[in-house]
């Protein structure tokens, strides 16, 4: 059950309208790493959680907080759109550099949403559920969550740097701090899970079914050997179960691909000497995708 409180989690009051900036702010609302993504990602991870109850409770705590962040940003966008269309801002956007980045305000803020936020990114692309990850493996999911919070905080910081509005900066500074907490939270949960199981996901696959001779080999598949200097090339592996080795000139271990020719009804490329279908005197094998070859 969810319960809505009328007050926002934190203030979302700009000092002045700025429809062009409202377009930019859409990125952290409906973009790939925006609040809608982490909101849906965490909620579905929590709904589907089959692990310890403390993890389910923690995931739903933060997922529910992200609903509040969506509301805050949507409210800020609505306030930034007060007084649109933004003639002054669009005049400023005629500068070639600014125009290339912003292109003026988002016309859908006027035409479609009536001066409100939309579930889209800063380019107007609709939010997509493919952005979110909920695999059922907590370690894999928590690492995805850490990445989402890292990318999200980076984008909020960049937006902070691109405005001088004290009200907008005040809200963004709150989100930046919460994203720091969430990154720390996921790192703590990841460390806890790694102590309980292997650092490699999934930890339940039998080791004897892996090709152990290549399980810890760093293969140099590019020109130069600078990559050999990294901790990933020598010494104990991160899962504590093997030793890294550096392979400077990896050799091919597989066969040369030699695919058989498709049947005539596929109409592929004939090999030299093969009689094209339809040639006088040739046997023509017919078929279709559903029924297979017909003689």
TrEMBL record:
<keyword id="KW-0106">Calcium</keyword>
<keyword id="KW-0464">Manganese</keyword>
<dbReference type="InterPro" id="IPR007760">
    <property type="entry name" value="Mn_catalase"/>
</dbReference>
<feature type="binding site">
    <location>
        <position position="69"/>
    </location>
    <ligand>
        <name>Mn(2+) 1</name>
    </ligand>
</feature>
<feature type="binding site">
    <location>
        <position position="222"/>
    </location>
    <ligand>
        <name>Ca(2+)</name>
    </ligand>
</feature>
<feature type="binding site">
    <location>
        <position position="61"/>
    </location>
    <ligand>
        <name>Ca(2+)</name>
    </ligand>
</feature>
<feature type="binding site">
    <location>
        <position position="35"/>
    </location>
    <ligand>
        <name>Mn(2+) 1</name>
    </ligand>
</feature>
<feature type="region of interest" description="Disordered">
    <location>
        <begin position="254"/>
        <end position="295"/>
    </location>
</feature>
<feature type="compositionally biased region" description="Low complexity">
    <location>
        <begin position="268"/>
        <end position="281"/>
    </location>
</feature>
<dbReference type="InterPro" id="IPR012347">
    <property type="entry name" value="Ferritin-like"/>
</dbReference>
<dbReference type="InterPro" id="IPR027407">
    <property type="entry name" value="Mn_catalase_C"/>
</dbReference>
<feature type="binding site">
    <location>
        <position position="149"/>
    </location>
    <ligand>
        <name>Mn(2+) 1</name>
    </ligand>
</feature>
<dbReference type="GO" id="GO:0046872">
    <property type="term" value="F:metal ion binding"/>
</dbReference>
<feature type="binding site">
    <location>
        <position position="220"/>
    </location>
    <ligand>
        <name>Ca(2+)</name>
    </ligand>
</feature>
<feature type="binding site">
    <location>
        <position position="57"/>
    </location>
    <ligand>
        <name>Ca(2+)</name>
    </ligand>
</feature>
<feature type="binding site">
    <location>
        <position position="66"/>
    </location>
    <ligand>
        <name>Mn(2+) 2</name>
    </ligand>
</feature>
<keyword id="KW-0479">Metal-binding</keyword>
<comment type="similarity">
    <text>Belongs to the manganese catalase family.</text>
</comment>
<feature type="binding site">
    <location>
        <position position="224"/>
    </location>
    <ligand>
        <name>Ca(2+)</name>
    </ligand>
</feature>
<feature type="binding site">
    <location>
        <position position="182"/>
    </location>
    <ligand>
        <name>Mn(2+) 1</name>
    </ligand>
</feature>
<dbReference type="InterPro" id="IPR009078">
    <property type="entry name" value="Ferritin-like_SF"/>
</dbReference>
<dbReference type="InterPro" id="IPR039377">
    <property type="entry name" value="Mn_catalase_dom"/>
</dbReference>
<dbReference type="Pfam" id="PF05067">
    <property type="entry name" value="Mn_catalase"/>
</dbReference>
<protein>
    <submittedName>
        <fullName>Manganese catalase family protein</fullName>
    </submittedName>
</protein>
